[in-house]
Write a structure and sequence with these properties.
With 266 residues, the chain is an alpha+beta fold. Helix content is 23%, strand content 32%.
Length: 266
Amino acid sequence: MRETPAGIFGLLGGRLAAPEVPIRNMARALFVVWVSLSLMTTPGTAQAQTNPEEWLKEAEDAHGRVANYTAVFHKQQRVDGELLPEETIFIKWRSPYSLYMSWIAEPYEGSELLYAEGWNCNRARVHRGGALRFIKRDLEPKHPRLMSGNLRPFTDTGIGYLVKTVGVNVRKAIKAGELDLSERGEESLFGKKTQRIEVVFPKDKAKGYDAYRLVINQDLASKILVRIQLYDWDDHLFENYGYQDLRPNAGLTDTDFDPRNPGYHF
């Protein structure tokens, strides 16, 4: 436990009068205090006080308070051994699962996707940008055209996926008695103060974890998980998902998930 000011003053005798202890003993006491404080404040050291279950519940509760949101979604994946360029996508999401995606930067600038559970026979309406913009398709989430160059279907998009991925893997490791979770200090991300968490699993792919290592950023104000980076068993980044300019409970309506929305190009 960190020494309180009163405790430190106690080591020094608690007054400015001539000390009643030998100078050598006082110097030794000061050295002990300095070392203790240094160890407790070194950036990046693990925080032994972190309770994984309490931390998970805090993140899950924060997500549970979000009925809809908008954000700029940053997505990068390693497919067939190649780390693909990052995609930048403006998204709208609400529950039950409804998703609008608009690619706002290359390589797929101008592309759009719209999906809502129960609408369009549970198919997404999609189109590419550029010259192919006027070709519309209705495709199931795992259709080969949509899965090409992707590790996961688009229905895994959203801050809920971050919470679910972390929760499943961390609780599995807790149950197996092989969890290694550490706080890695604060990090400024997307203009927000976040807490960086690292979770390391056994370096044995047969154990069935989604990754060897997770690096997670949690918004300090909202407690929402805003980025997750997954590293494979060679410790190479293979999935990276982040949510910038996240606006929880943005008041989205049916119009935001209607292909006739005048702001869309369906």
